[in-house]
Amino acid sequence: MGWRIIHITNVDQLSLQLDNLKVRKSDDELKIPPLRDIFAIVIEDLTCKLTSRLMIELSKHNILVLLCNQKYLPECVIQPVTGHVLQYRQMLKQLNWTKEYKGILWQKIIQGKIRNQAEVMRRDHIEKHRIAKMNELASQVRSGDKNNIEGQAARIYFNSFFDEHYTRSNQNYIENSALDYGYAIAHSAIARTVVAKGLISGLGIYHKGERNPHNLASDIIEPFRQVIDYFVINHPPEGFLTKNYRIQLINLLHAKVLIDYKMQTVIRAIEISIDSFIEYFETGKSEKIKLP
């Protein structure tokens, strides 16, 4: 699996030279070898040109390509037409995932999310009674989270860091723009891995958005969001999202998290989690589920 994340801004053209990514700006050229080491390319330049040959090779290497809009948020994801070598078989298996198993997996995901939120609170020295309440809520999550314990925990969590008027939808808070950007990058990375594993990205475990082509990624991201939360809470942007700040958010894919008793990058942890979900649905053993 590739590991490099390439951030593109203020360039004229991206093209292929042998097995290298060639970046051209005016008369200057830069080669980035080799393609197999690249995990993602984030393009924030609306005038940048990509050659067809390069796009074909990026697809063959299953490299995530994100095209960002004027607000620097990912607007378009370029993905290959073909995915996993056994994609049809994998898709049939996914279509047979039972409601019962989905409910249990969603329970584990939300428990993991709330416990990770509690860990962020602990590291930032939030009052112990709030952390204790978060851990209590995590233990109350049941299959499918029908009582919306996730929402109850979110209120305690965000109100521990922001004032009483804060909501995630309020764009007057620059922190929300930073969170949106970081979440979008992580969501796209997860969607890329979901497709690479031969799964149907639009078929979620809990999320069922009719206009969301990546409902499954929207499920899987939940216990990964706290990596972005922790960074933004401790390093809030000053006024607007600078290029350097956006690069730091992108590089959170290289942050280390604990999963399966080992420290792994977020990129690797995403793959481990998805592999464990597939194994869980095949065996029915919830202990196979691995979350960061």
Notes on the structure:
The protein is an alpha/beta fold. The protein has two domains: 4-78, Ribosomal Protein L15, Chain: K, domain 2; 87-288, Four Helix Bundle (Hemerythrin (Met), subunit A) (Up-down Bundle), CATH 1.20.120.920. Helices cover 45% and strands 16% of the residues. It is built from ten helices and ten strands. The protein is globular and about 60 Å long. The protein starts with a strand and ends in a 9-residue tail after the last helix.
Quick summary:
Helix content is 45%, strand content 16%. By secondary structure, the protein is an alpha/beta fold.
Layout of strands and helices, then pairs:
Layout lengths: L3 E5 L4 E5 L2 E6 L2 E5 L5 E6 L5 E2 L1 H9 L3 E5 L5 E5 L8 H9 L3 H25 L4 H13 L8 H11 L14 H23 L18 H6 L4 H10 L8 H8 L5 E4 L2 E4 H18 L9
Parallel strand pairs: 1-5, 2-6, 5-7
Antiparallel strand pairs: 2-3, 3-4, 7-8, 9-10
Helix pairs in contact: 3-4, 3-5, 3-8, 4-5, 6-8, 6-10
Q: DSSP strand (E) fraction? A: 15-25%
SSE string, helices as H and strands as E:
EEEEEEHEEHHHHHHHHEEH
**What gross morphology would you assign?**
globular
Overall structural domain count = 2
As laid out across the biggest beta sheet, the strand order is: 1-5-7-8
